[in-house]
Amino acid sequence: MNSVRMFIALVLFAAAFPLPAKDVSAEQSAVQYARQEFEKLEAEHKADLEQAELTRKALEPLKKQYQAEQKKASLSEKRKQQAKAKLDKAQEALDRAWKQ
């Protein structure tokens, strides 16, 4: 629809300011080239947006998995520190037993 409006506006503008036929033809070619370039880039942009959305959807489960694994790693770190404290305490008791 916009291209029809642009064409009508171009025709009206051309009628108001007559140009030599050669110039009108060159301008029409320039408009056509610019329109084709715009349409190509518009399609590329749409495809890029769709790909970005697909990637976002693919990342959602990975984000949840990452959060779960981070929580698990945090809990295992806490259990490891508790086990280390028990080991140190047991080692101290053994060292005392050997000294007595």
Taken from the alpha-carbon principal axes, the silhouette is: rod-shaped
Mean pLDDT metric: 88
Largest sheet: none
Rg, please?
Answer: 36 Å
Number of strands: 0
- Percentage of helical residues? over 70%
Q: Helix tally?
A: 2
- Structural class comes to mainly alpha
Q: Which percent band covers the strand fraction?
A: under 5%
Distance between the termini: 98 Å
TL;DR of this structure?
With 100 residues, the protein is mainly alpha-helical. The chain has helices at residues 2-16, 21-99.
Structure in words:
This protein has 100 residues and is mainly alpha-helical. It is built from 2 helices and no strands. The N and C termini lie far apart (98 Å).
Task: Describe this protein with a few key phrases.
rod-shaped; 100 residues; mainly alpha; single chain; 94% helix; 2 helices
Write the SSE topology.
Elements: H1 2-16, H2 21-99
